[in-house]
UniProtKB/TrEMBL annotation:
Keywords: Oxidoreductase, Signal. InterPro entries: 6-PGluconate_DH-like_C_sf, NAD(P)-bd_dom_sf, PDH_C, PDH_N, Preph/Arog_dehydrog, Prephen_DH. PROSITE patterns: PDH_ADH. GO terms for molecular function: NAD+ binding; prephenate dehydrogenase (NAD+) activity; prephenate dehydrogenase (NADP+) activity. The keyword Cell inner membrane does not apply. It holds the Pfam family PDH_N. Residues 5-314 form the Prephenate/arogenate dehydrogenase domain. It comes from Halanaerobium salsuginis. This is Prephenate dehydrogenase. SUPFAM superfamilies: 6-phosphogluconate dehydrogenase C-terminal domain-like (SSF48179), NAD(P)-binding Rossmann-fold domains (SSF51735).
Length: 314
């Protein structure tokens, strides 16, 4: 598997365990070190062959890995980076798998300012309303987008930009936009990024390179805001027992509301500026739609539905 012979995965929940399982599937000779604070989780991972060795805490064993994936809640990523750095110097690539990036990248830049380690933000756009190692799925990343945000030294600029909502442009996914980011990286960062992209492709996922601030804006639209809407739809129901009548449409729209509340609290608050902006825009959308209904304006409601259908079909 390219230049990675030994990989550590910190956190063996749904994402971490699924990643370890997927790595073993594509290369059984790869050595996987697992770290998790639950002994039962480590035993399950060892028994099922997802990892070769397991530890309840971060130890010097991780210094032998070329690549460390950090698959813990967003609020804990910074402390994990600090723990790894405190073990001593090592030429390693650290990649987090959190759902927001600006604050994580800023923390990584500060902690690793004098380090030989390289940090690249990562976010597989894959998941489930289930959690924990029992929900492991080695095919979780296949055909999924896998966003990478390299350049921890760009974090301070991204942090300042994150408080100014910029227009979303399809050009941010262009090769020229990707090259602009890569041109600001050191040669070591470029080499690690190349290897990491190839690894992601081997997993069956589709790598995309974005600035951290762009990532947080886009995932607000595609993941974090939909989660709030899903939860709102469930909370809107006056009596839980009427959910027995729900069809597949309602079930599809509210599936993610069953995800871990504690995990999602971290995600939502780490991207709250973008979410406030979206909530404001959505309130206006709903107010406009309400007026169309009050006015019995079938023509404009039809246009509203047609616009959504056309975007979805694209």
């Amino acid at each position: 598997m390219l230049n990675f012979k030994k990989i550590a995965v910190v956190g063996l929940g749904l994402i971490g365990a699924s990643l370890a399982a997927a790595l073993k599937e594509i290369n059984p000779t790869l050595t996987i070190i697992g770290i998790d604070n639950k002994e039962t989780t480590l035993k399950t991972a060892l028994n099922r062959g997802f990892i070769d060795t397991g530890y309840l805490e971060i130890s010097k064993e991780v210094l032998t890995a070329e690549l460390i994936f950090i698959a813990v809640p967003v609020a804990s990523i910074g402390s994990i980076i600090a723990e790894i750095e405190a073990l001593g110097s090592a030429d390693q690539l650290l990649v987090d798998l959190g759902s927001t990036k600006v604050e994580v990248m800023k923390q990584a830049a500060e902690i690793l300012a004098a380090s030989s380690r390289v940090f690249i933000g990562g976010h597989p756009m894959a998941g489930s309303d289930k959690s924990g190692i029992k929900a492991v799925n080695q095919d979780l990343f296949k055909n999924a987008a896998f966003i990478l945000t390299p350049g921890a030294h760009l974090a301070e600029e991204d942090k300042s930009h994150s408080e100014q909502i910029s227009p979303i442009s399809k050009n941010d996914l262009s090769l020229s936009a990707e090259k602009l980011i890569i041109n600001q990286l050191s040669q070591v960062e470029k080499d690690y990024l190349t290897d990491l992209k190839e690894l992601i492709i081997e997993l069956g996922a589709r790598p995309y390179i974005l600035r951290a601030v762009t990532h947080d804006q886009w995932t607000a639209y595609l993941s974090h805001f939909p989660h709030l809407l899903s939860a709102s739809l469930v909370n809107l129901v006056p009596e839980a027992n009427i959910l027995e009548l729900a069809g597949s449409g309602y079930q599809d729209m509210t599936r993610i509301a069953g995800s871990s509340p504690e995990l999602w609290l971290d995600i939502i608050f780490s991207n709250r500026i973008n979410l406030i902006e979206l909530l404001t825009a959505y309130q206006k959308e709903l107010a406009d739609l309400k007026k169309l209904l009050v006015d019995s304006d079938q023509t404009q409601i039809l246009e509203f539905l047609k616009t959504a259908a056309a975007k979805k079909q694209q």
